[in-house]
């Protein structure tokens, strides 16, 4: 495959994202008023509750079976490493450049979470169908590649809707708390608070020794209850994140894909409940267009209100498209040498390109759900997706040269 053909193949999905984003931005302008903030917010909830779970479930249940889940065990590890290294270098960027507190978790999320869904769904089949593809017969390559991509998307959804979801949710909670703290009406009266502390200190000085001992015991009891309360709070929050609709859909997709008789109930021409699966698939098809339109709509505000420095944008691009791809080459070649991955070069290509993807578009959904850093997210997406057109092309060439 020539460099020009490869450039066209790798750039096509990125250009599609940018074109639909521009349409969303135009629809959100005062001229059309088709995507005002409230409309984007409600559309995001629909994407979160219906479209994304449908896409994840349909992709997994249809293309992944039990044997493949076992033989492809390294892919979840590989995706976990993309999150680990991305978050680590994102943390370094945050420590060095010190962005606004409510943006810090967004930087970690953008650096660690790759678009493991629609980008790969377009790139892999397109590369397979190109003349001179290094991955063999076009039909076989496309079928197998779709299985790899669907598995990647489902596993990625689990990571995104647990770790990344936790980051954005925490950022939203902290951001709202900071806004409440800045509101004078909600702040405690400092003078009254100081007087109260003074009275407490005076009373403590006059108290006798038994009373002091009882007070210490009471404080220790309260502290112990507080610690247990924090533990249960963390477990409750983790449970909520694990029970989010996309994660539940991913788990169900694994079950229906792995268990043959369950798969036969929903999937296939003779399946008795195939109309349900077709309906789920139809819902899932709306995920990518809706997310991309919302992303474009948020961009209209982001260009004016986003508090992002040029150095921060450049640092994120360097992490995503320079550091992580080089780490990915080392990880995949090392795993291949140890015998952890199948010999199929297409499988190894998918593993490598997972380190090179632009940010997961679901991050935009999360920022909209929790009303935090929406504008900054849109601006980061604009520049990272523009850079991805060049980065994906260049690194795809390098990966195929290494593997073939």
UniProtKB/TrEMBL annotation:
<keyword id="KW-0813">Transport</keyword>
<feature type="transmembrane region" description="Helical">
    <location>
        <begin position="310"/>
        <end position="334"/>
    </location>
</feature>
<keyword id="KW-0812">Transmembrane</keyword>
<feature type="transmembrane region" description="Helical">
    <location>
        <begin position="148"/>
        <end position="168"/>
    </location>
</feature>
<comment type="similarity">
    <text>Belongs to the auxin efflux carrier (TC 2.A.69.2) family.</text>
</comment>
<feature type="transmembrane region" description="Helical">
    <location>
        <begin position="346"/>
        <end position="367"/>
    </location>
</feature>
<dbReference type="GO" id="GO:0005789">
    <property type="term" value="C:endoplasmic reticulum membrane"/>
</dbReference>
<comment type="function">
    <text>Involved in cellular auxin homeostasis by regulating auxin metabolism. Regulates intracellular auxin accumulation at the endoplasmic reticulum and thus auxin availability for nuclear auxin signaling.</text>
</comment>
<feature type="transmembrane region" description="Helical">
    <location>
        <begin position="46"/>
        <end position="64"/>
    </location>
</feature>
<feature type="transmembrane region" description="Helical">
    <location>
        <begin position="379"/>
        <end position="403"/>
    </location>
</feature>
<dbReference type="Pfam" id="PF03547">
    <property type="entry name" value="Mem_trans"/>
</dbReference>
<keyword id="KW-0256">Endoplasmic reticulum</keyword>
<feature type="transmembrane region" description="Helical">
    <location>
        <begin position="70"/>
        <end position="94"/>
    </location>
</feature>
<feature type="transmembrane region" description="Helical">
    <location>
        <begin position="12"/>
        <end position="34"/>
    </location>
</feature>
<keyword id="KW-0927">Auxin signaling pathway</keyword>
<keyword id="KW-0472">Membrane</keyword>
<dbReference type="InterPro" id="IPR004776">
    <property type="entry name" value="Mem_transp_PIN-like"/>
</dbReference>
<dbReference type="InterPro" id="IPR045033">
    <property type="entry name" value="PILS1/3/4/5/7"/>
</dbReference>
<dbReference type="GO" id="GO:0009734">
    <property type="term" value="P:auxin-activated signaling pathway"/>
</dbReference>
<feature type="transmembrane region" description="Helical">
    <location>
        <begin position="247"/>
        <end position="266"/>
    </location>
</feature>
<keyword id="KW-1133">Transmembrane helix</keyword>
<dbReference type="GO" id="GO:0080162">
    <property type="term" value="P:endoplasmic reticulum to cytosol auxin transport"/>
</dbReference>
<protein>
    <recommendedName>
        <fullName>Auxin efflux carrier family</fullName>
    </recommendedName>
</protein>
<feature type="transmembrane region" description="Helical">
    <location>
        <begin position="106"/>
        <end position="128"/>
    </location>
</feature>
<feature type="transmembrane region" description="Helical">
    <location>
        <begin position="286"/>
        <end position="303"/>
    </location>
</feature>
């Amino acid at each position: 495959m020539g460099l020009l053909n490869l450039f066209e193949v790798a750039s096509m999905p990125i250009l599609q994202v940018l074109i639909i984003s521009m349409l969303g931005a135009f629809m959100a302008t005062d001229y059309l008023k088709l995507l005002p903030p409230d409309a984007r917010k409600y559309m995001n909830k629909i994407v979160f509750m219906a479209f994304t779970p449908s896409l994840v479930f349909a992709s997994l249940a249809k293309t992944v079976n039990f044997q493949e889940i076992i033989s492809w065990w390294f892919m979840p590890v590989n995706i976990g490493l993309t999150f680990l290294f991305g978050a680590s270098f994102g943390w370094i960027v945050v420590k060095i450049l010190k962005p606004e507190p409510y943006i810090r978790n967004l930087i970690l999320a953008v650096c660690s979470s790759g678009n493991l869904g629609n980008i790969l769904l377009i790139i892999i089949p397109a590369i397979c169908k190109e003349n001179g593809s290094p991955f063999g017969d076009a039909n076989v390559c496309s079928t197998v590649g779709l299985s790899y991509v669907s598995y990647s998307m489902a596993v990625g959804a689990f990571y995104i809707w647990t770790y990344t979801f936790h980051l954005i949710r925490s950022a939203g909670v902290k951001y709202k708390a900071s806004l409440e703290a800045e509101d004078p009406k909600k702040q405690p009266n400092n003078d009254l608070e100081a007087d109260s502390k003074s009275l407490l200190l005076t009373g403590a000085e006059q108290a006798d020794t038994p009373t002091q001992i009882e007070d210490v015991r009471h404080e220790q009891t309260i502290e112990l209850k507080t610690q247990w309360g924090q533990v249960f709070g963390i477990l409750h929050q983790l449970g909520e994140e694990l029970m989010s609709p996309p994660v539940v859909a991913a788990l169900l997709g694994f079950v229906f894909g792995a268990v043959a008789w369950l798969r036969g109930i929903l999937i296939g021409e003779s399946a008795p409940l195939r109309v349900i699966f077709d309906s789920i698939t139809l819902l899932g098809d709306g995920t990518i267009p809706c997310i991309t339109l919302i992303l474009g709509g948020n961009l209209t505000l982001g260009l004016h209100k986003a508090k992002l420095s040029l150095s921060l944008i450049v640092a994120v691009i360097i992490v995503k498209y320079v550091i992580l791809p080089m780490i990915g080459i080392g990880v995949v070649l090392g795993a291949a040498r140890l015998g952890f991955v199948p010999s199929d070069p297409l499988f190894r290509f998918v593993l490598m390109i997972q380190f090179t993807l632009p940010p997961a578009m679901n991050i935009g959904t999360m920022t909209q759900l929790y009303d935090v850093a929406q504008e900054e997210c849109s601006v980061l997406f604009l520049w990272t997706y523009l850079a991805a057109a060049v980065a994906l092309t260049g690194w795809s060439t390098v990966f195929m040269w290494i593997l073939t």
